[in-house]
Design goal:
Blueprint: E1 22-27, H1 32-46, E2 50-57, H2 70-88, E3 92-98, H3 106-120, E4 124-128, H4 138-153, E5 180-184, E6 191-194, H5 199-206, H6 215-238, E7 249-255
Parallel strand pairs: 1-2, 1-4, 2-3, 4-5
Antiparallel strand pairs: 5-7, 6-7
Helix pairs in contact: 1-5, 2-5, 3-4
C-alpha cells in the first residue's frame, strides 16, 4: 500500500467570482493585493464592482526612510495607497491599524473584520491564502485566517464583532450573501484571470508604493510582475483553464463559504 498522500479536490462547485458586485479585499499590508492581483481588481472595477480594501496593519515597519516620524510615514503610506486605489477603481481603504510585524491576534482582527463584513455586506471576500506551506510572515497568514473566518462567521449572530464603524458611505442598505472567497498567493489556484487589458493599469498602481521600495527594487518589481504573469498564464494554458490567446494572468483559489467550513 502506498504511503503517499492524495490531494482530494473539493466537491463544492467553484463560484463565479467574475460576477461579484460588491467586493471586500483584505490585506495585511497596503500593497499586498495590488502586487498579487491588481489586474483582477482593475478588471472587477471595469465590470462595475464596488470594491473596498481593508488593510490590517499600519505598514510602518517596512518604510525605508528612517528619518520620517511615524506620523509623516503613515501620511505618505496612506497617500500612496489612495492614489493606487484611484488608479484601479477601488472605492476606498479602511485601516485596522495593527502594528506591522507586531503582536496582534487572529481573534482581534477577526472581530474587526466581522464588523466590516456586516456593515459593507460584500458578495465576495478576497484575502491571502492562509494555508500556504512556506509563508513565514505572521502578518500574512494571520490576516488571511481572520478574513476567511470573518467570511463564514459574520452571519452567525452569536459571534461577536466590535464597535468600530467604517465610513457611512461604505455601509450597505442591502443584505447580501457571500458567494465567493478568492484567495491570492495560493499554491492551489483553480482560477486564472486574464489581465492582458489591465496589466499596465496594475503596474501604474504598484508604482505608487515608493515608501517601502528603493528605486532599484521598484524597477525590479515592475519588470518581475509581467514575467510572473506570463508564467501564470502558461500554467493556466496547461491546465485548460485559460484561453491560449491570453499572455498575462493572475491565479486565485476561489471557494464558496461552504467549502471553508467542514466540507469538501
Amino acid at each position: 500500500m502506498s504511503s503517499e498522500f492524495v490531494d482530494i479536490p473539493s466537491l463544492m462547485p467553484i463560484p463565479d467570482i467574475f460576477s461579484s458586485r460588491r467586493v471586500l479585499a483584505i490585506q495585511a499590508h497596503y500593497d499586498d493585493v495590488d502586487i498579487a492581483i491588481g489586474g483582477f481588481i482593475a478588471q472587477l472595477a471595469k465590470n462595475g464592482a464596488e470594491i473596498l480594501y481593508v488593510t490590517v496593519t499600519d505598514d510602518l515597519a517596512g518604510v525605508t526612510d528612517l528619518t520620517l516620524s511615524k506620523k509623516e510615514a503613515a501620511s505618505r503610506l496612506e497617500k500612496e495607497a489612495a492614489k493606487a486605489a484611484e488608479i484601479l477603481g477601488v472605492l476606498g481603504i479602511y485601516y485596522l491599524g495593527y502594528p506591522d510585524a507586531g503582536d496582534w491576534s487572529v481573534y482581534q482582527a477577526r472581530r474587526d473584520l466581522i464588523t466590516v463584513v456586516r456593515q459593507f455586506q460584500p458578495d465576495c471576500v478576497i484575502a491571502l491564502d492562509p494555508w500556504l506551506n512556506t509563508e513565514a510572515h505572521a502578518d500574512h497568514y494571520k490576516s488571511g485566517f481572520a478574513a476567511v473566518e470573518a467570511a463564514i462567521l459574520a452571519d452567525v449572530l452569536g459571534v461577536e464583532g466590535n464597535d468600530l464603524q467604517i465610513p457611512k458611505e461604505f455601509h450597505s442598505k442591502e443584505k447580501r450573501e457571500i458567494k465567493a472567497v478568492g484567495l491570492f498567493n495560493s499554491s492551489q489556484a483553480n482560477t486564472f484571470v486574464d489581465i492582458d487589458q489591465v496589466l499596465e493599469t496594475k503596474l501604474t498602481a504598484v508604482s505608487q508604493y515608493v515608501s517601502q521600495f528603493t528605486p532599484e527594487s521598484m524597477a525590479g518589481m515592475l519588470v518581475a510582475l509581467p514575467k510572473r504573469s506570463q508564467h501564470f498564464a502558461g500554467i493556466g494554458h496547461a491546465a485548460n483553464k485559460l484561453s491560449k490567446d491570453v499572455t498575462y494572468a493572475e491565479p486565485l483559489k476561489v471557494l464558496s463559504t461552504d467549502a471553508l467550513h467542514a466540507a469538501r
